[in-house]
Predict the structure.
Amino acid sequence: MSNAVLPVYGPSPVVFERGEGVRMYDDKGKPYLDFIAGIAVNALGHCHPVLVKALSDQANKLWHTSNMFRVPGQERLAQRYVDLTFADYAFFTNSGAESIEGCIKIARRYHWAKGDTDRIGILSFEGSFHGRTLGGISAGAQEKYREGFGPRIQGFRSIPFGDHEALKRAIKEPDLAAVIIEPVQGEGGVREVPEQCLQGLRKLCDEHGVLLIYDEIQCGAGRTGQLFHHQWVKDAEPDLLAAAKGIGGGFPMGMILSSEKAASGMAKGVHGTTFGGGPLAMAVGNAVLDVVTGDGFLEQVRRVAGTMQQGMESLKGRYPELVKDITGRGLLRGLKMRDDPLPLRGKLSDRGLLVGTAGNNTLRLAPPLIVTEDDVREAIDIIDQQFATMMTAAGS
């Protein structure tokens, strides 16, 4: 049977029919423990009853109006995020890529409104991934995503990850408008930026009049045990933040959070979106936030993350020939392997465990936030069994 889908994906041959909680079931009825969650999207697992009810109730009332009209659910969700974060404003989008584009526009407009029309530069870091639009691949620092699509858009540049001297030089460039960084890199190997580096970056941006953008599309929405990862760090709040993935729990939804300062250049008509902030997305977004901010939810995420950390440390200790390091934080973790983890991902799928991969030979684990300690132990045991098989094969 021919496939009319543009051939840009390389999907697994497994076909899933349904999901429940942290498990999915294929068309043969085989269960899989889902430890990738649609790449950190299904924050509350599959078919969470609170989300199903919210979407169903809204679908029976009103689907779409556009932003020509007020959307009460949008106004409510914006205020809730403002109350919970550094932000003074929220703007809702369809995706993470659209959120990144919006942050870039807001940052450039901020300087333009002040008369600094030449300040259009956007600085990012080696290994970063900021989406697949032309702006996103220009901001990102992975050449493979730009290949064949022409040169970077004017003003975009990158420096090595962790190179403080390069940062000190780059931050002084007179055309620089903003620095964009993932507090925990996803595609770049699930690398957490040290707390003191975020604090130092915030200070440098303030000293040189540069806006600071956090890309928390993958590490936000409670994934590392705080609503947003940067909230672990004192004195490191951004001017702008891009979010998506988990904030919609599987429903397409993105968001920009902005300080009043960063948004000071924005005015009616200079930005917009057709579908962003629509009634369906806002119903689900409010429901996700209800659950994630509920009593004890993030505490449970942190507790389970501790069990996951222990299990991964055990794997590293038992299989030093296979595992080089452990990366990430909370429920966004990586096993940095000594060899390409892609074949391993397939073997784990055969055993009923779904995981992802990332840069630097990293096996990526990002289960739903509702995962239990027993689920984590089951996943670690499956990986352990596969590692033991690999070691036996290597010794034969």
Observations:
- The chain has two domains: 16-48+297-395, 50-292.
- The two ends are 41 Å apart (CA to CA).
- Residues 138 and 153 are 6 Å apart (CA to CA).
- The longest strand covers residues 323-329.
